[in-house]
Amino acid sequence: MAGGQPISNLRKVVTVVDEVVLELGRPVAAPVRRVAAAAVIRNPWAGRGFVADLQPDVEDLAPGLGRLLAGRLIETLGGVERIESFGKAAVVGLDGEIEHGGALIHTPYFGNVLRELAEGTSIIVFSDDRLAAGEPLTVPVWHKTAAATRSHYQTVQIRIPDAPRPDEIVVIAAAASGPRPNARIGDRRSDPVVRLADLENAR
Amino acid sequence: MKLRKIITLTEDIHTEGGRPVDPIARTAVVLAVIENPWAGQGYVTDLLPGIDEIAPQLGELLAPRVVEALGAPVEAYGKAAIVGLDGEIEHGSALIHTLKFGDHFRKAANATTLLPAVEKRAVAGGAFDIPLKHITDATIRSHHQSIEVRVPDGPRADEIVIGLAAASQGRPQARLAPLASEQ
């Protein structure tokens, strides 16, 4: 169906939120909540051998996944205005192709839906892998409107003990409500000019 | 209490055994990573002062959060204490096996039964299973279940992870005979 809802063969949805209160015993100046939301679905290409044209299933599934997961991020952080950074990921079960995961997260049918609902403009940073059930995946996030904002480079880890099965895919969206705990490594605007030649001359 | 971080996790099961689960079964877990209040003190004989100080704070922190994360009436519940490598399991038990901790959850969930628990010592990132049972009748077999969780960077050797778990219903597709039918 147009827009891809409801999501067929959705097995479970897992959300994890991480709030850091102290870092090395010091209060976090700008408290941040990092969230990852994951949907476990049957790999639509499972058992079909090599499928040349992935597009029909992408159009069917990806927008619904984008809506579902963006909704979870917004709900968990308490409003779209609290999303400062975002990311995405796919974990393909052992019998699938990495390309299957890429198909579900790297096209506008997922990315544009997530970006629009999160009210972002940046390209969305990602990770992907093919893994056994229960392996953790680290998902990067960066700023949703200014991707080069260094304070917002961080990651959130998610792990689902019983997924993905070999014929499943875990599709993930992630977000954070602010910068890294006690971020203090400057930014592009504050950096001195660093060139390899200068570093070698200084030795 | 030196609280380092809080993890909140929800799991919604939409299908099990290939069949829809209706209503969707939700389990929620909230974990607090704190400094072990007895770390670096050698063998402490009397744990009561630490219990009196910390256990109520943990109950107050975690109980409302896990009920809110569940977003539905609690039907089954459980608790956890995972002690970092330098501590005693007794330190974790001290913080969760007291009414000063458990009654906060019991009250928030309108529950009456004992909270089933997992206590262990583990490395940071070690997985653990929190058992859950029915909140007013621990013999209701359909509600015996567990959820596996972990904190990637906790507990450090001098920390303890304390957790609560709540479920909105029994096991998805539960279809075992009630205990009473065997008696």
Give a structural overview:
The complex is a heterodimer of chains A (203) and B (183). Chain A is of the alpha+beta class. Chain A has four helices and nine strands; from the N terminus they run ββββαβααββββα. In chain A, the strands form two sheets. In chain A, strands 1, 4, 5, 6, 7, 8 and 9 form a seven-stranded mixed sheet that branches. In chain A, strands 2-3 form a two-stranded antiparallel ribbon. Chain A is globular, with a radius of gyration of 19 Å. The mean pLDDT of chain A is 95. With 183 residues, chain B is α+β, with helices and mostly antiparallel strands. In chain B, strands 1, 2, 3, 4, 5, 6 and 7 form a seven-stranded mixed sheet that branches. In chain B, β1 and β2 (19-35) form a beta hairpin. The mean pLDDT of chain B is 96. The chains are: A alpha+beta (203), B alpha+beta (183). The interface between A and B is medium-sized, with 20 and 19 residues.
Name given to the CATH homologous superfamily of chain B: BB2672
Biggest sheet details of chain A: 7 strands, mixed
The CATH architecture of chain B would be: 2-Layer Sandwich
**Given the structure, what is the number of helices of chain A?**
4
Provide the helix percentage of chain B: 10-25%
Question: What global shape of chain A is seen?
Answer: globular
Global morphology of chain B: globular
Q: Oligomerization state of this entry?
A: heterodimer
Uncertain residue ranges of chain A = none
Compute the number of helices of chain B: 3
Sketch the major β-sheet of chain B. Answer: 7 strands, mixed
- List how many beta strands of chain A DSSP finds: 9
Total DSSP E strands of chain B: 7
Distance between the termini of chain B: 47 Å
Rounded mean pLDDT score of chain B: 96
The structural class of chain A is alpha+beta
SSE order of chain B: EEHEHHEEEE
Total discrete domains of chain B = 1
Residue runs with pLDDT of under 50 for 5 or more positions of chain B: none
CATH topology of chain B: 60s Ribosomal Protein L30, Chain: A
Strand residues, percent of chain A: 25-35%
Pfam families (chain B): AA_synth
InterPro entries (chain B): AA_synth_put, BB2672
Protein name (chain B): Amino acid synthesis family protein
